[in-house]
Every structure is written in structure tokens, then in C-alpha cells.
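Review session, final week

We close the course with one last complete record, chosen because it touches almost every idea we covered. It is Membrane fusion protein, cobalt-zinc-cadmium efflux system, a protein from Chitinophaga jiangningensis with 376 residues. Go through it on your own first, then we will talk.
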Amino acid sequence: MKKIIPIICVLFACKNGEKPAQEAAKDTAAVVEATTVELTPVQVKNGNIEIGAATTRSMAAVLRVNGTVDVPPQNVVSVSMPLGGYLKTMKLLPGMPVSRGQVLATLEDPQYIQLQQDYLMAKSKLRYLEADYLRQKELNESKANSDKVFQQAKAEYEGQRVTAGALREKLLLININPDKLSDGNITRSASIYSPISGYVTKVNVNAGRYVSPTDVLFELINPADLHLSLTVFEKDIDHISEGQKITCYAVNNPSQKYTATVHLINRNVDENRSSEVHCHFNQFDKKLVPGMFMNAEISLNNAQVQAVPDDAVVKWGNKPYVFVADGANKFTMLPVETGTQFDGFTAISTDLSGKQVVTKNAYTLLMKLKNTGEDE
């Protein structure tokens, strides 16, 4: 039995080996043959299949990059209170629109009262010292007093003027108008006004909280000057120049195209071997908001190339093909090498001179061809 078993195994191995080899050869022949499909005139008409020659077009090499919608630093404002205080009223939420000069919040603090008191007293004393200075000046001119007395009066007057001026500026810091301040309208509160028109992006405080001068209460943004900040790798920076036109679209809405122009190029390469390219949108759209991710296509150059409509190129097995018309409604699938896609056309480096290709609904032929091949 030990001698017979190997012989039987060899016989079965030969038989089992012959059949796959024959089937493989048959399958290979089928694949080779399944490159041509023939339709009836009715099928061509119903399939809306169109035929035409490859054309020579001006195609631009396209650099694809990504970035975010941003605003310049001067359009982003962090609001704080220089002297601090207790937040009395505030009715802001992120996303709310604000206008320049609008009251954002009201704060209270005893130091506001003290500051107004100091200013009014300094202003009153300044009036007295000014009158004394003018009097001493007249006396000095007539030699009725000594130069020392006059100089002392002048020094006290000028020093008090500095004190009153400094207190005046402090009042302006907390938005209290010193020109309208009197002993009858001293207030314990101070208001914060919006420095720009735009939207609230952050609210970091709540009513009743004490805020210090270093606390950022709110953040505001003015979206009127939106720009696109693109990240470009160092190998591609030399291909980009100021004034270059780009096409961009949001990641969540690729069908909506926007145009922009390269405005500034950062000549510094960061640790990621990339640089920032600053682009201005040609037209403002309120749908664009800061922080939104966008993809962009930058046209680098133009060249005359052979091209066919995008609909003429089909993919099978991750390889591109076109269908060449052989006459009498017969079409052959031809492998091609594709290049840049631009404005609805695809560049083809394979020579298609003198050939008529299917320019529309080529995928209809591909499905017909592969379905026929499977049935066989």
C-alpha cells in the first residue's frame, strides 16, 4: 500500500492540475476577447452614445492644496476692562451680531467712584493753581514778587495739570466722558462698548463675576475681510506667485465653487516643511465662516495637449480606458494614460490621432461589455 499511494496521488495530481490550467487558458482568452462590444443601431440611440475625435486643448497643470477660511488679525478683537470690576449686566451669546458702539456689558466697582472723585478734585485744584499762577506772573512782570515765588506757582500749576490729565485718560479707559462729569452725575458703573461691527465668537464671563484687567471677557470678529489661508509644501512654493487665480470649495459642499486671488506668500517654511499662502476671495459669501476647511486648485501653467471629455474616460480595474469606434456600431476598449483634468476635459497622453472615440455615455458600453463577458 505504501508503494501504491504515491502513484495514485501523482495520477490525481496530474488530472487535477490539467483542468485548472485549461480553464485558466480559457479564462485568459475570454479576457483578451472581451475588449470589443457591438451594439444595434437602436441600442446606440437609446444609450445616447456620442462619438467624436480627441481635440487639442489648452490645459493647465493643477496644484491641489487645502486650507481654512480666516480673517486678518485686525478683524479679531478681544474685549477686556482695563480697571476690572464686577460684571453687572451682560446679554451676549456666541453668534450674536453686534454693531460698533453698542453696549456689550456694564461693570461696577468702588474704584470707578474714587477715580471720578479724584478727577473732579484735581480739576478744581487746577483752576485755583491756574489763577494763582497767572496772578504771580503779573506780579513778577512788575517786579512786585521774587522769581522764586513765581517759579513755585508755575511748577505747582503744571504739576496739577499733569495730574488732572492723567486722571482724565483713566476715565476715558473705562468709557466715562470726563467732559460731561460733574459732582451731580458721579456713577458707580462703567460700560463696555463694541469696538467693531461683527459677531460674538466667545463669551468667557457671566453676570456677578469679578473680572480683572487681564481677563478677556468677549471675542468679536468682523467677517467683512475674509481670506483663504492655504498650506503649500516647500516643493510647490516656487510655482505660486502673487496675483495667481485659484478655485476653491468647501469640504462639505464641493459643488459650490469660489474664486480667489493669491495676495501674499509667506517665505518662511515651518517645521512641517510647508508655508502659508494668503488669498483674497473675489466675492464675499456669507456662507463662508472663519475656521471652515476648504480645498483649492491652483492653475500653474497652460499647455496644448490632446484631450477628451471627462465622460469619455472609464475605469476598470483602477485603470483608465476609452472606447474607440471601429465602424458599424462596434467599439473597442483601449487602455490610455490620462493627465490633468480641467474644465470638463481630461488630458490623454496616448496617441488617438485618426481615431473616433465615444465621448458620451462610455460607461454604458463598459457595462454592456462586462455583462456580456460574464454571460459567456
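Two points worth writing down before the exam:
The chain has four domains: 35-59+304-375, 62-73+222-302, 81-107+191-221, 110-187.
The first strand starts at residue 36 and ends at 38.
Good luck, everyone.
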